[in-house]
Amino acid sequence: MLTDISLRALQPKPTAYKKADGGGLFISVRPNGEKSWGLAVRVNGKQRFLSGGLS
Domains in the chain, please, with CATH? Predict the structure, then answer.
């Protein structure tokens, strides 16, 4: 589960990575420390990603 405490604890790594919450919700952390929300959904049987703002 992505809680406020767990989100604040995410640190940048040399490569971008994602931390998933389940049900398709995830947060992406970039090497420069930027974090953005995303949601993985299926449209017509194909996986698509919806992205949110930076935090």
Answer: 4-54 (3.30.160.390)
